[in-house]
Amino acid sequence: MQMRAGVAKKTIRSIRQQAFEATHLFDSHPESSLDFEKVRAAVKDGYDRPFLLIDSTIVREKTRRFTAAMPRVLPHYAVKANPDPRILKLMLEQGAGFEIASIAELDLLLALGVPAADVFYSNPVKSRDQIAHASSRGVLWYVIDSVEELKKIQSIKADARLYLRIDTPNIGSDWPLAGKFGAHPSEMRDIVVTAARLKVDLAGVAFHVGSQCRNPENWRVGIEKSRGVFDQMQKAGLNPRLLNIGGGFPVRHVKPIPAIEVIGEVVNRALEGFPAAVRVIAEPGRFLVSDAGYFVCRIMGTATRANKRWMHLDAGLFGGIIETAEGLKYKIRTDRSGPDIPWNVAGPTCDSIDVVMRDEPLPSDLQEGDYIYLRNAGAYTTAYASGFNGFPLPEIRVI
Ligand SMILES: Cc1ncc(COP(=O)(O)O)c(C=O)c1O
Description:
The chain is α/β, with parallel strands linked by helices. The chain is 33% helix and 23% strand.
């Protein structure tokens, strides 16, 4: 029975997704990515392992564009997207705040001189030790999505400012985050009532529309739902004053996407429902760094197996090219011009799951030693990489 419900849910989700695809034939995001000549020059400088080349000018420009599109919304960079200290410094210089998932991320920021008050701890479940550490360093804001987490934080830092992550639609997001975090209506009621009873400062609402969200409506629905939760909080005697509209702002790969200005229009209009005194933040990760980077790796060897062409790269799922596992498609460049054929593209490890793409159309004449360039790969690549099987971590070069 449970399985049937699961199948039905999946079917409903795929019908909604198809309806979304059919009705949103927009593609308003201008072409933006790192100049390929700079990538070629970086390769000429030397290559001994995969690397990510980041152009700091693009990071600066994306931060400016984000703020111009949504003047009321202060970006708090999601450190997880790319925690390289040089990138964090760029964000700091641009006046951004930060969103963290762990105390290691917090310590990295504090070492760079980021004020603890500008850091939002948005991981819905934190250990007691982690909360105590963040509290001792001066972090004020913590997310919750359960009564348990509310009570845990209260027992360690009674004066913490909490914000409630709620469940909102992730329709049309390439990397959905719904289904794990986010309180549903009945749980919200419990949390609000408990906060009021225990005199906890439940001071705001957060949601996340899913990463690489190509559907601006998700923000409208999220903001409207948050408005309802603000009302509930006020009725319970709480003082909500923060709205956190999360991350999810998309970048160009191969599918059509709305420009940040189009999303901004939807967000700005929806925010009119909130008094000016309400502080509004977002947690963009991908949007601020993805376009700024090219991921460069190399073919270690090729093979034909069961009539299928295989190439084995020196970076695979474990080396940073992991988002392809959930269907994300990068635009790929090579230095070959042969006709495309379907290639299976594997990483270097012996693990059978280390296949980053199947039947990817790529030039037939690609060979051992050739470079493979993944466009707009500045986010969620190097951040994920591990040294599994003894292969070196990719390097990050910032220009
Ligand atoms: C709580 C939270 N905030 C922000 C982000 C950043 O999302 P994005 O990179 O899609 O903007 C994530 C990504 O997983 C997240 O979990």
